[in-house]
Amino acid sequence: MKRYSITILLALLVLAGCNNNFLEKYPLDKLSDETFWTTQQDLQLYCNDIYSDYIVGFGYGFGDATINPYGYTQAAIVYGDVITDNAAPNSYSKVAADEYIGYLTGSSGSGGWNFDNIRTLNYFLENFRRGNVPTETQNMYGGEILFFKAWDYFKKVKLFGDVPWLSKTLNVDSPELFGPRTPRKEVMDSVMACIDTAINWLPSRADAKYQTDRISKEMALFLKMRIALYEGTFRKYHKELNLDGTTFLNACKDACEKLMAAGYSLYSTGKPDQDYHNLFSQYTYKGNPEVILAKEYSADLELGVAFSRYFAQNLRHQFGVTRNLMDAYLCSDGKPISTSSVFLGRDSIQREMQFRDPRLSQTVANFGTYDLATGVMGADNAPKPNIPGLSGNKCPTGYRLAKWFLNDPEDWNRVTNGMQAAPIFRYAEVLLDYAEVSFELGQASQSVIDATINKLRDRVGMPHLEIADIPKDPTLDGNYSKYCGYTPAPLLREIRRERRVEMAFENTRWDDLMRWKAGRFLEIPVEGMKFVQNQFPGVKINSDIYLSSDGFILPYYKTLPNGRTFDETKQYLFPIPVEDLILNKALVQNPGWKSN
Question: Is the peptide bond before 409 cis (omega within 30 degrees of 0)?
């Protein structure tokens, strides 16, 4: 069965039949009601203009636009983790350190509080049935728009909780512009209604009417799964909401089961020491059995992005993996480092990476080595990471990310026309979600674990997770107790560990911390690798770098001496920009944030 990924070739599609007025998204009244909405091509062109707003991948051009309010760059799928406990950017994250003030200085519509795209989506939904186009065709494009509307509102709810639910286009004098926020419960019910209708209207990838490289029923099921797991678990662990999440958990489980029956499988060539890494360094995902949705680029049209150059060739976005993430990887015997007899300790990066889950060496570079065949890790960063005290862009922890590394100087030299493809939805997440939601519903049997977690472990040759013999991890349990105020059951702890390891640097960690009410994990001290002086003879301690009492690099010793903090009274939601509060007196700021 063919597997398809979304290839965004917007320029070609627009040039195929779009006039200049169509390119002007606003004001909407410049679209001619007499001549538009009459053909399938009209509907398709309208939808095409929306794809690039949501299916971003590594971004466009230099790919260095900032995504607010988070503060990371446009390739969010990779860089989103820099605000979590997985990573440490050279200049510490203001969001992670509870120093975010953008809402005080940003203009109206900033910081994620922007409804321009919702207006564009609603305009389509008000007009797409006006032409003499078959209902089935109208539904196909209407399903795409509802998919994007559900995705947009999901992002807004994650940011702000209650948000205005807008079901029609508004004008400058519309009373809804000055109305209060819609309660989270109502918004999420509407989001689920949108995605359910999208699933009903969209064709399956196996249907003859499915158009290659467009949104499919399976992609909508994936989005539903992700939305439902987030909301169901957020409601469970944030008891202050007083909202029951069971309906969402059941919806997640149902979506997972449909996707698990849809013919997807994990990418594997039988090479457990390479397959995980190689999955993330591709030019295309057509034919890949694991990738449900991807963003690809076009060499012919010179539509690309400078991701591979600035990530692989010179680490322009200066950051490093944290020791906290390193410690999460199990040893090759299936036990955590705190209890495993094969763990060699942390005396050097070379020793700590031996006898570990193979995903560790395929995610984090061992002194610049990521490619097992060539041993090369970027022209400016081999054979050692550029820790402070060395020239070049800095890897502040010494743990350089190897995942997403495309070892191809030809692509680096394309600069803004780089062609590396970005997987956005992949089947591994379905397996992880199914394992987690099954536990949350009290249904996580060994057969469930074998069909999910253990399939992921099989790909990399790791021992199976056996419910009857779950290894103890006093260190991780202690962190949960200290920072979260609860200790999850051993099985849930291991399901969450598997998720962190498998999905590292795919921009899921922040959402996981928020929905598990585990934001204070950000307060775990940020440390890097064990510093070995004879490996860096020119680097000066207490000048170039600073070390903990155990000899680990402290990237924020000078800039953030008291460490990161997480205020649980406010930081699970972001603030509404002050200017919007001034313009709309019916809005009330989220708890804990200053209103002026």
Answer: no
Torsion of CA 480, 483, 484, 485, to 10 degrees: 90
Q: How far is CA 76 from the centre of its chain?
A: 7
Predicted local confidence at residue 372, as pLDDT: 44
Cα distance between residue 42 and residue 349, in whole Å = 57
Provide the token pair at 63. Answer: 């790919």
451 class by beta-carbon count within 10 Å (0-12 exposed, 13-18 middle, 19+ buried): middle
- Tell me what pLDDT residue 366 has: 82
Q: How many angstroms separate the CA atoms of 237 and 533, rounded? A: 45
pLDDT per position as a tens digit, 25-59: 444 445 566 789 999 999 999 999 999 999 999 99
SS3 category, 331: strand
3-state secondary structure of 423: strand
Buried/exposed 235-265: b ≥16 CB within 10 Å, e otherwise: bbbbeeeebebeebbebbbebbebbbebebe
**Residues belonging to the chain:** 596
Nearest to 440 by CA among 516, 382, 334: 516
Q: How confident is the model at residue 392 (pLDDT cuts 50, 70, 90)?
A: confident
pTM here is 0.93
